[in-house]
Amino acid sequence: MEMGWKNLEPFCELEGNIIGVRGEIEPTSVSQFQSDLEKFYDHPAKCALGGPDKIQSVALVSGGARRTLPDAAAAGCDAFITGNFDEPDWYIAQEEEIHFFAMGHSATERIGPRVLGEHLAEKFGLDVQFLDVQNPF
Predict the structure, then answer these.
(1) 137: helix, coil or strand?
(2) pLDDT tens per residue across span 41-80
(3) Which ranges of the chain would DSSP assign to H, the alpha helix?
(4) Strands 6-14 and 17-29, how do they pair?
(5) Is pLDDT of 129 > 60?
(6) What is the model's pTM?
(7) Quick one: what percent of the chain has pLDDT higher than 90?
(8) Long-range pairs for 44-48 at CB < 8 Å and ≥24 separation?
(9) Domains recognised in the chain with CATH numbers
């Protein structure tokens, strides 16, 4: 992953399909991690900060996967990233002692298609263009 995650493993299953990833990072302050996320996704974060001072383990499910926050907490992650949030997520993060970062539904879902396009262009010599339409959500 472009953010330097290591020891990647599948995370979270939905109807028999793995929908996320879990990994480790070098111990990073919460504010630095948030800044890195905002640069990577080119989108401001909405945060519910309930975890430790340093983040080392992270789970990610793109799009509208806010309901999988408890899964990330149960897996022992310091932080969870997805696209959107709702009011109860604030309290869940506090109770489960995990940081929750909502990076925008659209912003978290544009990474996969962009990388897929790059792969197809490289593997098959296709002319691929990723059209990034900004969306505030």
Answers:
(1) coil
(2) 999 999 999 999 999 999 999 999 999 999 999 999 999 9
(3) 30-41, 69-74, 87-96, 105-109, 111-124
(4) antiparallel
(5) yes
(6) 0.91
(7) 85
(8) 44/104, 45/101, 45/102, 45/103, 46/85, 46/101, 46/102, 47/99, 47/100, 47/101, 47/102, 48/85, 48/89, 48/90, 48/92, 48/93, 48/94, 48/99, 48/100
(9) 6-106 (3.40.1390.30)
